[in-house]
Amino acid sequence: MHRQLIIKAIEKAKKELGSSKKTHAAQHLSDFILEETGEPYGEKSLRGNYNKAKGNSEENIEFKNYVANSLSKYLGYGSYNHFLSENPKDETHLRNNFLSKANKKKTTIGSIIIAAFMAYFGYDMTKKDCMVWTDNSHFERIKCEGKSELKTITYDKVIFDNFKRVNPDCNFSFFKPDGSEDLWYGKSVPGELEFFTYHGLHPTTGKTLDPITQYMIDKYICKE
Mean per-residue pLDDT for 33-37? Predict the structure, then answer.
């Protein structure tokens, strides 16, 4: 179920490193996971799963939660659930391609049982929480069944608590004590530069935000 996740993560790592070697990319991701979670996950395992995902193997590819969430964060998402909400077609397509006919039959039977169970107990899936980008500054939590003219996405606590648009000046804390970025930027639909307190996707354009650099600070924030 994590085929598209590992493919996208490795490909992004290749671009960032300027290397076409998957070994380098896998080691880069392994280091990122360790730094992000404090839990190790080897380069060989990442590389092996990437090879399976790119090949014709029908073997299931499934990471532990901390690995899936870390890879999703590397791609700019708040969590694996956030990644799924933004890439549902890709993940479903790859998952269905890898399932055998027997597994598909089991999945269908299981789905029917679950649907019948929910219908019997009157479970309403539309009551799941969502959120919308409000006043071009923050996310606001709403019910998914509520009507909104704004784009509605699945509620994610990490993004909801940390993702804000800010107008930084020279006194802003651009980097964390360990030297990692603490500000991200991207252009709005009209092309204006905007700054955010958490990594991920631009809330209106959907493009991946870039981490702040000293060059961007000197050129656009501390111009003098």
Answer: 88
